[in-house]
Amino acid sequence: MKISKFLMLSFSMLVLVGCEDELDLNNPNSMTAVEYWSNEEQAIAGVNAAYTNLLNDGYYMRMTPALTDGRADDFRADSPWPDLGQVSNFTILPTSGPITWMWETYYQQVFRTNQVLANVPDIEMDQDVKDRVLGQAYFLRGLAYFHLAINYQRVPVILTPAQSEADYYQPTASEEELWAQIVSDFSSAQELLPVDYQSVSGPDRGQLGRATKGAATGFLGKTYLYMEEWSSAAEEFRKLIEGPELNNYSLMDDYADNFSPFSENNAESLFEVQFATPDQVGGTVKNYGGNPQNDWMQVSSVGHTYAQDGFGYSDFLPTRWIYNEYNEEDPVDAEVDPRLLVSIASYEPEANSTTVYGGVEWPHAPDAIYPRKYTHDGYGFETESQGGVELSGINYRLMRYADVLLMYAEALNEMGQTQEAYQYINDVRNRANLPDLEEVKPNLSQEEMRDQIAHERALELSMESIRFHDIVRWGWLYDDEKLALLRERDSEFETWRPGKEYLPIPQSELDVNPNAEPNSAN
Fold first, then answer.
1. pLDDT tens readout for residues 376-411
2. Residues with Cβ < 8 Å from 268, sequence gap 6 or more?
3. Taking a C-beta distance cutoff of 8 angstroms, is the pair 8, 281 a contact?
4. Could you give the 3-state DSSP secondary structure of residue 396?
5. What separation in angstroms does the CA of 105 have from each of 51, 52, 144, 396, 506?
6. Which UniProt keywords are listed (predicted)?
7. Chain centre distance of CA 278
8. Is the dihedral of CA 324, 326, 331, 334 positive or negative?
């Protein structure tokens, strides 16, 4: 039974009031912003509205995972949809629909969180509930700007609701300003959010899926990691590992639990997007794009997009490199790294893995490989998306404790504490029954450990919207040796050109905002 979802789409749509007298009309069926923000219930509904953007096609319903995974060396496009292939081979145009949908939904979340942050402080309500509402708004705004930064490089930073026409045409901020704002938002969220919602009092008590202090800490640490502020990153990750307040996360015994519909919001998860099927939460209209509406479904399309031929679209395939990388390891008392069979659907008689979905005998060529992670394959279902098309209810995990451990190891290594990094890598390897790294590769240099961490992150986090951004922040695309490796692993990198690691600023934005600047991908 899937846990109860709190992200219902029943929120009031606010009306913008024109400045000219002849346009200064109120819709009698809707509230104005001034009328709306008046009580605790509306404050909570306002922040709930900011969560719903995560369910949008441009965000984690489909395009953010698909267009991120597709650019990495562990995934390649296999789709008749030109945009997916063009993003994957770095030739996408600024007129592309999918990259515009991503841009729009990130800024929808900015718009909604700005409303919360501007209006909720003046509402008379329980102070603890108010702090939690504001903390969630800071977290979600930081998350939106984090995605804008890693995907679009330089963007306008908007921190207040528009008050005049001029406010709609904000200039592009510098990268330094953008990343500083992300740090500020996650830091504010960290101060205001609770450790969990089980021990709070108020209408949000017990509501799983809301942002917590741990989630804000994890993303603050990750932000510092991207900024190469290693000691600050390590400090945040250490809070999650050593505590005392936040060390309530742990690795699940079974790696597959991190992608299962039956073990969501588990001990390893710091934050995940809450999806659900219509029979669980209702909805009649697919949540593809635009502003979320009351009749929207809350389904994910990732499963059907990634699912193998005969069960879904098969828009992407794992590269042969990542498959072989799993087989580079020699697990203790096992034929293959157990993460391989969770991440990739492949024919493995030696590991007694010769069927798919509800026991169907392997229906493909013996050497074919397909994505399995975030599909229903392996969890007892006979079809993908519960028998429908794009109807998955599997939550998308944005950050796991395994990622925290590996990021902490990376920060330690960059600080010159290479020997100390072994412990946290081994924590992750132990679950996969891999031999102790200190025994098989003792006394690695800092540079050797960098390559080892890249290997560990590839195996643990493949096809989780992480790998490509790792490649970018490590500078591999501007390192001739590493770029040659990427091109060997995935021929789509042959058409990469400097600056094309980012998605171009949508042409529609450049057309309407004279102060917006193109980026290196335009």
1. 999 999 999 877 899 999 999 999 999 999 999 999
2. 249, 250, 251, 252, 257, 258, 400, 401, 402
3. yes
4. strand
5. 11, 10, 9, 17, 13
6. Cell outer membrane, Membrane, Signal
7. 23
8. negative
